[in-house]
Amino acid sequence: MQDNEKRLTRKAYAKINLGLDVVGRLENGYHQVRMVMQTVNIFDILTFVEAERGIRITTDCGELPTDENNLIYKAARLLLETCGIRKGVTIHLEKHIPIAAGMAGGSADAAATLLGLRDLFSLEISDEQLQQLGVRVGADVPYCIMGGTALAEGIGEVLTPLLPAPRCSILVDRPDIQVSTRYVYEHLDASGMWEHPDIDGICAAIAGGDLEGITRRLGNVLETVTIAAYPVIARIKREMLASGAKGSLMSGSGPTVFGIYDSREKAQAACSHLILKGLGGQLFVTEFV
Ligand code: ATP
């Protein structure tokens, strides 16, 4: 490593949905959503090193592309081109967020890339401008730039920050099944009938610091489709509730399920319970960020 080499490291945090509703569909096929987004303390680590030219991605994760199909690459290229940067960058991704799990791992990486490269190249570009670029990479990228607790509307890019959600412990279980986001949204349209979660009620409970009010209203319309295809998700929810969760829900289009507990001890005991029941996939005991 040269002494004057410019490098920096950033964390990319995963999210869960405390509520997810679909309220319409645009002519271009995108779904209009109302989602309560919450950052959790599960993160990838990205390291950025300035290079002479080009964008190069390395990763410890064998499952991900390192070419222009990686969302990190797309975000980096968009930012460097937009800002007319002639330099290049090498980006290393240490992957911890479950992949294709409903936790916005790819969007989180893209957001961290925009924020990291802004700092690496000292770019004069605001968070709002980064969000406008980010939505071209993915609908969840603007939220991942903002982080924390937020209401996401439109296709996910119209953001209203909310007060931090009350403290609690979260058990995350990503079962070992593959769920296609496209399949879930297409079948939701076909089914037509679903119960809408009380998104405004969740936002009000967050504003009032009312954990019980949040857990009582957890709801995700996409569960109807994903659980019909993969009943194991309902079993995980049941076992989380049986082991003391105040509420349990599938995140995004799945298959990740989370449970909310009022102590870390309870979340840890529930984690052991799931393993005993043969329902433990990728497991994390974590908290809101
Ligand atoms: P969302 O919650 O936004 O639906 P997700 O958690 O379901 O996202 P991701 O982990 O973001 O899904 O990955 C979706 C797809 O994007 C994967 O099939 C993966 O191959 C691809 N992908 C491209 N770049 C990345 C990246 N840096 N991290 C994860 N996935 C990536």
Care to describe what's here?
With 289 residues, the chain is an alpha+beta fold. It has two domains: 7-161, Ribosomal Protein S5, domain 2 (2-Layer Sandwich); 169-286, GHMP kinase, C-terminal domain (Alpha-Beta Plaits). It is built from ten helices and eleven strands. The strands form two sheets. Strands 1, 2, 3, 4, 5, 6 and 8 form a seven-stranded mixed β-sheet that branches. Helix 1 runs parallel beside helix 2, helix 2 (105-120) packs across helix 3 (127-134) and helix 6 runs antiparallel to helix 7 (211-217). The radius of gyration is 19 Å and the shape is globular. 44% of the residues are buried. The protein binds adenosine-5'-triphosphate. Residues 64, 70-72, 99-107, 109, 140, 181, 252-253 line the site of adenosine-5'-triphosphate (ATP).
Q: Level of helix content?
A: 25-40%
Mean pLDDT: 96
Classified by CATH, the class of the largest domain is: Alpha Beta
Q: Find the CATH topology of the largest domain.
A: Ribosomal Protein S5, domain 2
Low-confidence regions: none
Instruction: Count every helix, treating DSSP H or I runs of 4 or more residues as helices.
Output: 10
Overall CATH architecture of the largest domain:
2-Layer Sandwich
Q: What does the largest sheet look like? A: 7 strands, mixed
Strand content: 25-35%
Structural class assignment:
alpha+beta
Molecular shape: globular
